[in-house]
Amino acid sequence: MKTKLEEIRCTAKKLLSEAESIREIEDLRVRFLGKKGELTAILKQMGGLSSEERPVVGQLANEIRGDIEETIESVKKTVTEKELQLKLEAEKLDVTMPGKKHEVGGLHPLNRVLEDMIDIFRSMGFDVVDGPEVETDYYNFEALNVPFDHPARDMQDTFYLADNLLLRTQTSAAQIRVMENRTLPIRIICPGRVFRADEVDATHSPVFHQIEGLVIDKGITMCDLKGTLEQFAREIYGDDTKIKFRPSFFPFTEPSVEVDVSCSECGGKGCRVCKGSGWIEILGAGMVHPKVLKGCGIDPDEYSGFAFGIGLDRLTTTRYKISDIRMLFENDLRFLKQFN
Ligand code: DAH
Description:
- The protein contains twelve helices and ten strands.
- It is α+β, with helices and mostly antiparallel strands.
- The strands form two sheets. It has a seven-stranded mixed beta sheet, sandwiched between helices. The chain has a three-stranded antiparallel beta sheet with strand order 2-4-3.
- The chain is rod-shaped, with a radius of gyration of 44 Å.
- The chain starts with a helix and ends with a helix.
- The structure holds 3,4-dihydroxyphenylalanine.
- 3,4-dihydroxyphenylalanine (DAH) binds next to β9 and β10.
């Protein structure tokens, strides 16, 4: 029996010394020291021993159990350390490795031009305001002196959402809100999207962009309008840009003008961009109609003002020589990436 016990000690210690994981050690513990283990099995046979032999074998068995337990503890320690070492090795992080580059986005060409325009008008003392895209008939038409039978109200031009509710067809709607809510004098621009039921083609889109301008103060004249627009055109297109006022009609201005700038591409000689005329039409403008002022509670005998509405899309396509307005709305990355 003693030999058997020594054999157990020997095998257990040998196997333990070869163990490589905590799991393996645990299996060995169960195999030798567990309730159904090899050592326990030997002890169960002790009943067959003589009374002299029994305590000697019992003592040896206990000593071997202690010995195996000690070995288990020490092997466990080494294995745990080894496992930790391996784990650290596997999870090693090289902080000097170069990072992954994120692709940087860029401004849409419309926003590039818009930001330039905002800079120019801010430097002339204009505030930038925002107006709602969903408007009532009153702000989009009536308050702007667009009579009920005016063709601009035709269902074909305007997207109506309900009887009295529509998608604004012009940023001019914001003029009224500004005059109602701001204290005088007023000097604002209002950039934004406008909507018209147009067929889509190379120069038309049902959604496009305008920048509205409005100045109201005592003693404002057409001269101020011309000076402001001239300054704006020079900063956008260059110092020798000329502007030209052509008489026009808008219900909310009197007198009304359409404004052309000399073609920045050919300098006025005539080319493809200006369709041979030497001029590019960029905006409508005029002196705010006394009826409009009165409707907003401003006394037209005391105050006067000018307004203008610039088409942002046209400005963008001519600046970047974009031949088709649809490119501005399709968000094709191959197109957009050219501007960054
Ligand atoms: N709202 C006009 C349009 O969409 C443009 C315009 C013309 C705006 C004259 C103005 C203005 O403020 O004074 O065609």
